[in-house]
């Protein structure tokens, strides 16, 4: 039995240890835009990474118009000459719920527009348009903050020029938060983004961040504005150091110190009213924070309020002590309301008691996320961009089709209801000075209906893979430098009605399937290609050779030329040897002649001596005289 208890305790310890270790620290990425080295900012020594290799643009000295932004001295701006869309594409971001904040800056240069106006999108969804005068505010206008689910391993943050100065970005923060942070109802999740419109700490004397409140690190680092006036200077603030959070009523990502102060109405104006400017015809999520810290209220029923938004009561009979479970405990109320006008007014009207009270207010715009473009088609366009060498002025950064206010120039989009994604149905890049080649990856654009690349300097062969884009109706590749033959696969494009290949360097027989299409009211133009043949109006083709036969003939010709060259080389070397021998013989001729004459005289002398000796012997000795 003792062993069993020991084993059980050991098992519980291991399970508990695993649960503790499984809650890893939240993902944090802070980028100091334009910085060449990592930066630490005072007083907390917060680390900001340099942004090398994240994006294009130009690094420059910069400044922030507000104390809210981090104390950084560089920024990155994006001139229109580099394209109307520019993006930070941050990779290896774990799946999760994130607070994404982008701080705006101004270039320290007199010749620059001191207040650029541009649009900001996150993951293809337009979330913010900088208003005129944003640089003169110490509030949420100097940065944009969104809460979004990221589930594809990347974070795409894009800045879209609107013709009013070059976008300039000071810093970017991506902070992982609790998956249930700011849950506002059934619409909460991966199909929505919420953007901070206003965040107020009603009892605070100065604006502060969560870091000043010792906020939980799973809630991010949020900025809370103080309220200068609330009503007609008829408000009064109260604070306490004894208030605590109620974990049963308030999620654990709220900083506890916002409940240690509150704004209390007066006898002259018992109700509290706050009005904030908003964009019309949108939904807003409103979060109201309460804690009964007034010493005069000790039990339930002593303070009861009705809370209304734009005149409609959304929370009747709010009793903080009763709903929070006691005094000095937190209560959070949330509702989502559609607003048709340009103001959102919150009114707290006391029913029991003489005053209304509130600790903090948060207002978020609820944004429906845009459906993205099919990933395979995005990759096809990126391959086309690289192969054609698109100029920077065209941009082609981010998502081709969204936000819908800023699609890529030269790419036509259509929403596909089957996949609930955007697809590319047209490419129009005529007369753009393109000098690359047409890649096989263009076949990834399976929904193309028209392609116009005329009037450029594109070279190389027409890719056979183009014949797999069966939806293609118009193909204009005229006045380029395409060479080689027309692929037989183009004959498979049964929907093709217009084909312009004139003004190139194409050769060979026109595919029979294309030639027959001329009888079905299709408009084809093959002129100004000296090597094309096979249809009326073009030269008659000779014996048609397959590609294999052409290769065989070429190899045979090469072998024949090599053989002839070898024979000529051998003949030339033999001739050189003969001439060399003749030259040697001619040089040694006198010596050889004299030696030959000497040998002949010796032989004759020997012959005469021999004959004379035989005569003497035969005749006997001579007579003595």
From TrEMBL:
The keyword Translocase does not apply. Gene3D superfamilies: Galactose-binding lectin, Ribonuclease Inhibitor. One of its GO terms (cellular component) is membrane. Residues 1-22 form the signal peptide. This is Malectin-like domain-containing protein. The keyword Endoplasmic reticulum does not apply. It is found in: Membrane. It is a single-pass membrane protein.
């Amino acid at each position: 039995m003792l062993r069993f208890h020991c084993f059980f305790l050991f098992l519980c310890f291991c399970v508990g240890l695993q649960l503790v270790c499984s809650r890893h620290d939240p993902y944090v990425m802070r980028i100091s835009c334009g910085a060449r080295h990592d930066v630490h900012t005072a007083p907390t020594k917060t680390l900001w990474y340099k942004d090398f290799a994240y994006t294009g643009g130009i690094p420059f000295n910069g400044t922030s118009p507000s104390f809210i932004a981090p104390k950084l001295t560089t920024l990155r701006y994006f001139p229109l000459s580099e394209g109307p869309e520019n993006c930070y594409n941050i990779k290896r971001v774990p799946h999760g719920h994130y607070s994404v904040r982008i701080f705006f800056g101004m270039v320290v240069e007199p010749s620059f527009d001191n207040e650029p106006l541009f649009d900001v999108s996150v993951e293809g969804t337009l979330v913010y348009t900088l208003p005129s005068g944003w640089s003169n505010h110490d509030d949420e206008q100097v940065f944009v903050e969104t809460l979004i689910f990221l589930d594809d391993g990347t974070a795409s943050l894009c800045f879209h020029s609107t013709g009013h100065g070059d976008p300039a970005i000071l810093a970017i923060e991506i902070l992982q938060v609790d998956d249930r942070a700011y849950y506002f109802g059934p619409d909460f999740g991966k199909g929505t983004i919420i953007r901070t419109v206003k965040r107020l700490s009603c009892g605070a004397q100065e604006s502060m961040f969560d870091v000043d409140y010792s906020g939980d690190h799973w809630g991010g680092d949020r900025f809370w504005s103080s309220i200068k006036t609330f009503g007609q200077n008829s408000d009064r603030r109260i604070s306490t150091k004894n208030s605590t959070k109620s974990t049963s009523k308030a999620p654990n990502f709220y900083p506890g110190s916002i409940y240690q102060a509150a704004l209390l109405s007066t006898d002259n104006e018992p109700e509290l009213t706050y009005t904030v400017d908003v964009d019309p015809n949108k939904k807003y999520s409103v979060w109201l924070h309460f804690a009964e810290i007034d010493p005069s209220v000790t039990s339930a029923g002593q303070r009861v309020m009705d809370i209304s938004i734009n005149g409609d009561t959304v929370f009747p009979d709010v009793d903080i002590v009763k709903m929070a479970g006691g005094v000095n405990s937190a209560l959070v109320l949330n509702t989502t309301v559609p607003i048709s006008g340009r103001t959102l007014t919150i009114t707290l009207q006391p029913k029991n008691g003489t005053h209304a009270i509130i600790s903090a207010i948060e207002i978020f715009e609820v944004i429906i996320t845009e459906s993205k473009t099919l990933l395979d088609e995005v990759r096809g366009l990126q391959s086309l961009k690289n192969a054609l060498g698109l100029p920077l002025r065209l941009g082609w950064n981010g998502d081709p089709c969204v936000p819908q206010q800023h699609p890529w120039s030269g790419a036509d989009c259509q929403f596909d209801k089957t996949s609930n994604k955007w697809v590319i149905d047209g490419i129009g890049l005529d007369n753009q000075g393109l000098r690359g080649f047409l890649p096989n990856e263009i076949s990834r654009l399976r929904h193309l209906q028209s392609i116009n690349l005329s009037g450029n300097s594109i070279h190389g062969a027409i890719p056979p893979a183009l014949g797999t884009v069966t939806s293609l109706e118009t193909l204009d590749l005229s006045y380029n430098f395409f060479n080689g033959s027309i692929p037989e696969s183009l004959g498979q494009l049964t929907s093709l009605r217009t084909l312009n290949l004139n003004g190139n360097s194409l050769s060979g027989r026109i595919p029979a399937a294309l030639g027959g299409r001329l009888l079905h009211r299709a408009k084809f133009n093959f002129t100004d290609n000296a090597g094309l043949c096979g249809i009326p109006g073009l030269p008659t083709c000779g014996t048609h050779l397959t590609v294999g036969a052409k290769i065989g003939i070429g190899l045979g010709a090469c072998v024949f030329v090599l053989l002839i060259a070898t024979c000529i080389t051998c003949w030339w070397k033999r001739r050189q040897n003969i001439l060399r021998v003749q030259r040697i013989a001619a040089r040694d001729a006198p010596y050889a002649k004299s030696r030959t004459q000497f040998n002949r005289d010796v032989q004759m002398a020997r012959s005469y001596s021999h004959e004379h000796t035989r005569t003497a012997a035969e005749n006997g000795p001579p007579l003595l005289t």
